[in-house]
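Give me C-alpha cells for this 769-residue protein.
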Amino acid sequence: MRRAASMFLLVALLFAGVTGVRAQVTPVPANGETTDVTSPMPATEEAIRRLLSELDDGQVRALLLQRLSLEAERRAREADASDPRGIDDVVADTAAALALFLADVVRKVPRLPDAVVTAFETFAERRVVDGPGAEPPTAVPLWRFFATLAACVAAGGLGWYLATRALAGLDHHIDGARPVSLLDRIRLLALRFCSQTARVVLFLLTAHALNAWLNAGIQADRSTIAAILKAVGWTWMALVVARFLLAPHRPTLRLCTIDDAGAEALTQRAVLVVGTFTFGFGFAIWLNEFGSPYHESWHGFWVNLVAHTVLIVAVWRSRFAFAQILEAGRTDISPIETWSIRNWAPITTAFVITHWLVAEIVVATSDVPPGLIGAMASTLVLVLGLPFLDLALIAIVGEAVPDEATKSAAGRAADRSTRIGLLRIGRVTGVLMIGLLLLWIWDVDIVSLAERGVGARFAGAVVHTVLIVGAAYAVWELVRIVTDRQIAVERATLGLLAEEDAGATEGEGGGAGARLGTLLPLVRMAAGIVVVVLAVLAVLGEFGVNILPLLAGAGVVGLAIGFGAQTLVKDIVSGIFFLIDDAFRKGEYVDVGEVKGTVEKISIRSMQLRHHRGVLNTVPFGDIRNVANYSRDWVIMKFPLRVTYDTDAEKVRKMIKKLGEELLAHPEHGSQFLQPLKCQGVVQMEDSAMIMPVKFMSRPGEQWMLRRLVLTRIHDLFEKNGIKFANREVTVRLADEKERPISDVDRRAIAGSAARTIHDTETPAPQPG
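Here you go.
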C-alpha cells in the first residue's frame, strides 16, 4: 500500500511538468542505511514503471522527497518574483511582529529568575566526569570548578609574567623613546600594541590549555571556563586597543588631541562598554546552552537593552572629550564637520538605538540566526570606530601635505586645497569599503541580488549606484586636486599670492597671467562633464535602461547643433585656437579692438574683460580679429617731466640717473625694475615748460606701483635741489593795448581763450605698454 501511494505521487509529479534530466538522490531507508541511486528521468509511462520496479521502498521515498523539494524551491522563486506586496506592507508586518514580540517579552519577565535557576541546576547536573576512565559518569563537587578557574587564571598570569619578562627590553625602549614625527609615534604605538597583545595571547593560551587538560572529561566546566576566559580576553583587548588609540599615560605618544584625564576616562568607558557586551552576551549564551532557551524568557533582550543603555550613557558622558578630539585644533573645518562634531552624541545615540531596534526586529520576525551576535557586534564596532578612522585619515593627510609657514600664500592655499580633496577622497573610499564590509558581514551578495525578485534587483541596483557615485566623486576630487595644485604651483612660481591676485593691479590692468591657470579650469570643467555623463549612463544601465539609444541620440543632437549653430561652433573653435596660440591668459590686460580690459573669466565660447573703470565686457571668441596683449614679458613706462626754462637739463638728467641706481637697491621694489630709471633729456619745448621724459622697464602689472614710487622720489629730489616744475601758463593779449580796468566781459574772453589753448595742447595720458 505504501509502495503504491509512493508510485502514484511520483507519477503525478512527473506528468505535472516537473522536468529533470538527471538526478542524484540519497534515499534513507527505515533501517537508517543510505544507498546512493543515480537514475535518468524517464520520459514515458512505461519507462517510469520500469524504473520504479527496480527501486525499493526507501529509494522511492528519497526520490519523491527530492522532486518535492525542487518543486517547492521553484514555486518559492516564482512567488518571490511575483510578490505584489509593497514597502508599506512590509513595514506594517514588521511593526506588527515587533509589537507582538515586545508584548511577549513583557509577559515573560517573571520567568527570568526561573531561567537563571534552571540554567544553574542544569549546569550542576551536567558536571560529571564523562570519559574513558569514568564508567558510569560520576558527579564532581562544586569547589573543583572554582579551583580549576583559579588555577587557569594563575596559569594565565604566569604566562603573562613570562611574556612581560621576555619583552622588558622592548618596553624599556618604548618608554625611553622621544618621538618626533607622526610615523615615529605610530611605530612606537604599534610596537607597544604588539607587546601587550602578546601578553594577552599568552595569558589566554596558557589558561585555555590548562582548562582543556584539567576538564578533559567535564564538558560543563570546560565550556563555562572557556566562555569566561573568552569574555576576559575581549575586554582585555579592548583595553589594549584603547591604549593604542588614546595612550592615557603617554601624552608624547598620543595620536589625538586630548588631555590625560580625558584619555583615561575614555579608556575606562571603552573597557566598561566592551565588558558589558562580552560578559552580558556570554552569560546569555551560557543560559541558552544550559537549559534556558532564549525564547522562553527572552533574557537576551534584556542583556541587549542593558548593554546598549550603557553604551549610550558612555557616549553622552564622553561628548566633550570627543569634541576635543575631533576638532583637534584644526582651522580648516568645514561647516558640515562642525555640525557633525557638535551633534556627535545625538547622532551616535540615534545609531545605537537603531542598531538595537534592528537586532530585535530580526529576532521578532525570524529565528535567531547563528551569526547574529557577531554581525551586530561587528557593525557596532565599525560604525563607532568611524571617528577614529577619520582622525587617522586626517593625521596621515596632514603628515603627507603639511602646512608649512615658510611657503608662499599660493603654495599654502594649494596645500590646503590638496588636504581637503584627499580627505574627501579618503572619506568616500572609507565609507564605501566599510559598506562593502558590512554587506559581507551580513552575508549580502550584491552580485546575486539581480537573479532574485524585483525588490532584490532594485536593492542591487541601489548598491551599485552608490558605488558608482562614490567612485565618480573620488575621480572628480582627484582631478580637482591635480588641477588646483598645478595652478597654485604656477602662481607661486610667478610670485602671485592667490587666485584673485593673478593680474590684480589695483584696477589699472596689465598684470601677468598664468597659462595653466587659464587652461586647467577648462580642462577641469570638461573632465567634470565627462565624469558626470559616464556616471549617469552607468546608473541608468544599472536600473535596466538601454543606453545605446541615448548614445545614438546624443550623436544626432551633436550633428544638429553643429549644422544649426554655426556661430556657436565658430566661437568654440576660435577659442580653442586662441588658447592653443597662448594669445591671452586669465588676469592679463588685452585690447581686442572695440573693448579692452583685464581677462577675468574664460568660458567655452567667450571671455569677459574687466575695464579698468569697472565695466565688464563679454567678447565671443568668433568676433575677435586681433589681440593686443599688454601683459607679456615686459613693459616700458614713460611719463613727461615739465620743468621751467631756467632748469639745468644736464643736472636733471644726472640726478634721474643716480635716482635710478638707488631705486635698483630698494629693499622692496628694487628687484621689480628690469631696466633702471632714465631721463631722455629735453625732447620738446612748450610755451611755458621744457619736456623731459623719463622711463623704466618692469614686469607687466608692476609698473603702476613703481610709477608712484618714482614720482614720489622725483618730487622729493627736485624739492631738495631747488628744481621747480613748470606750471602751465597761457598769455592772452587784448586788442586794445591801452591801460584800463578789465571788465567782466574781458575776463570771460580771457578765460575762454586760455581753456581752448590748454585743451588743444594737453598731453595725452600714457597707456599700458
